[in-house]
TrEMBL record:
Organism annotation: Marinithermus hydrothermalis (strain DSM 14884 / JCM 11576 / T1)
DNA bind region: 31-50
Protein's name in the database: Regulatory protein TetR
UniProt keyword annotation of Transcription present: yes
Molecular functions per Gene Ontology: DNA-binding transcription factor activity; transcription cis-regulatory region binding
Annotated keywords: DNA-binding, Transcription, Transcription regulation
Highest classification ranks of the organism: Bacteria, Thermotogati, Deinococcota, Deinococci, Thermales
Amino acid sequence: MHLHPPRRTADTRLLSAALELVAERGYRGATTRRIAERAGVAEVTLFRRFKTKARLVAEAVRWATADLGSLAQEPTGDLRTDLVRLARVYNDLIQTRRGLVLRILPELGREPALQKVFREVMETRLGGVFALFQHYQAAGRLEAEPVAAQALAFLGPLFARNLLGEALGLEVPFQPEAYVERYLVGRERRD
């Protein structure tokens, strides 16, 4: 007897289709009709499950960034291990979703619904990352500075490296251990 792998749920197919189409066509070009067609469901299913395109895209971004939020919430006690793990997950997330990010960023200023969604989702996801840096500051392992500044100083270069590499067509190898060591220079407390 041949067993077929279980089909992805309609919700998962809709979330994936929304991300793909926003990456390909932008927010306006990712119509609910196109999203439903790509997901293999009726458009009414999209509206029944998510009510609006903005809600669907918001949920898709939450779904696509879930790993980032959960990773940073549980410090192991080993600063380097946690930062290397964060760097890997964040780098992988950007690598797999860079088309979406490249497409969404310019549209944030033009699409208030998308801007609101993106801000809310990123604040939620970055909250876990901020908590990781706050934990190590409280433990005396990192210099005291605003947590948001410290976290963004860590994430920003990874973000720029990936997006600039994509825009220029460059494949830049990533070495998370070396990246963390460079980041910690001047930030790690050695009391």
